[in-house]
Design the sequence.
């Protein structure tokens, strides 16, 4: 039985592990944490990701924990609803013509449970990968406290600060955005406050754009935040900023908030010998459009399919193809989403809002737009 090491028990590493286990590989997942991460990060699953997870046998349980989101909306802070796109026009393209809103921390325990049903598959916690060597057909991973694991392949899915990527000496090329993103999860029901809300809403504004999105547990508000102001100053003015979105005449009930820097970066190569990079270890992008985790899950399944062929050329082709998708598709769509949300030129803004209304009103144009935003077009040819 071929043994594959996977660094990182995030959504990408565990998807790779389960996909490999189902194809007959023995898999050892090496995770630096004492348990799976519980933090609230990605929360949108796109249709092709739902197809893949369903094929891995975890789709039903994920659906039980998530919220179906058949539409998403573009809004303007001043004008309200601009356009609502309905994924029902994708009914001929996918079995899942909707987004599923569900935190990634609800997916990972499901993947783990399914993985551990496979003989020979295990997760080692408190195992911080620090070094990688390759001799012949064997990859050896070493932890920071001297433990050793050997396999025929290593998939590095150990996140944006990937030790695997560093160990194989691959550059992480790209840019960092000038502002940070602040995400507040709130115990408020926004549908009672703002009319025509969808579960995911991209809100245009020349001064302060934002995103409002529903998860099973909370509404989340994402706000751009200056790069250099002290964190405590930003948290102190968060309520005032939320009241700019809607003022209930009292402070918003904020469950938690976090701030982070946003990068657009792609690894110079996704493969070095028998080591592959997947997910955030290979590419990071802004969260607008919800492409990061989704495209990482697509990497994981593509690698499992390629490794199952037993042909190193197929593995090389998968790594090259997934890097092209990251560069030409994920980076491009997410950066375009960012530029459009923050556009300040009144004529450009008006033209963009008009084009969104026109797309939403025309099923053929809506389908073409949704094939791209839902990532279907990054995975397979789509007919007219
Ligand atoms: C606020 C926010 C919102 C987001 N929203 C979305 C969204 O809606 N849709 C979307 O698609 N994406 C979204 N993303 C991006 C998404 O969260 C990431 O793309 C996703 O987590 C990547 O999964 P991963 O498994 O590659 O990495 P991670 O989730 O970072 O997992 C990496 C794992 O590796 C472990 N690890 C780290 N270093 C080591 C080491 N040296 N040795 C062993 N293990 C190690 C970590 O403990 C962790 O368990 C969002 C991100 C943020 C911050």
Sequence:
């Amino acid at each position: 039985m071929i043994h594959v090491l996977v660094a990182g028990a995030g959504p990408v590493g565990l998807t790779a592990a389960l996909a490999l286990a189902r194809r007959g590989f023995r898999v050892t997942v090496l995770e630096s944490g004492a348990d799976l991460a519980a933090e609230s990060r990605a929360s949108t699953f796109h249709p092709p990701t739902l197809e893949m997870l369903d094929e891995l046998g975890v789709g039903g349980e994920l659906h039980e924990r998530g919220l179906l989101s058949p539409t998403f909306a573009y809004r303007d802070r001043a004008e309200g609803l601009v356009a609502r796109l309905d994924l029902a026009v994708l009914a001929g393209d996918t079995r899942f013509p909707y987004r599923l809103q569900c935190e990634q921390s609800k997916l990972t325990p499901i993947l783990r449970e399914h993985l551990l049903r496979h003989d020979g598959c295990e997760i080692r916690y408190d195992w911080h990968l620090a070094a990688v060597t390759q001799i012949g057909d064997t990859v050896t991973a070493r932890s920071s406290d001297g433990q050793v694991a050997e396999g025929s392949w290593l998939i590095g899915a150990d996140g944006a600060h990937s030790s695997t990527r560093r160990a194989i000496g691959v550059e992480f090329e790209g840019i960092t955005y000038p502002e940070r993103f602040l995400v507040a999860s709130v115990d408020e029901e926004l549908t009672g406050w703002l009319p025509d809300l969808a579960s995911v809403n991209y809100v245009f504004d020349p001064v302060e754009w934002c995103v409002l999105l529903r998860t099973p547990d909370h509404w989340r508000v994402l706000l751009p935040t200056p790069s250099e102001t002290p964190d405590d100053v930003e948290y102190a003015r968060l309520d005032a900023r939320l009241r700019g979105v809607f003022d209930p005449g009292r402070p918003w009930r904020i469950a938690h908030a976090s701030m982070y820097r946003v990068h657009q970066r792609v690894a110079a190569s996704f493969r070095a010998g028998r080591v592959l990079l997947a997910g955030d270890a290979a590419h990071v992008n802004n969260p607008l459009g919800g492409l990061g985790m989704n495209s990482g899950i697509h990497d994981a399944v593509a690698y499992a399919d390629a490794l199952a062929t037993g042909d190193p050329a197929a593995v090389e082709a998968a790594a090259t193809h997934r890097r092209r998708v990251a560069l030409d598709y994920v980076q491009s769509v997410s950066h375009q989403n960012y530029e459009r949300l923050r556009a300040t030129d009144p004529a450009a803004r008006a033209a963009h809002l008009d084009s969104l209304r026109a797309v939403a009103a025309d099923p053929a144009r809506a389908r073409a737009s949704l094939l791209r935003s839902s990532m279907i077009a990054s995975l397979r040819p789509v007919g007219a």
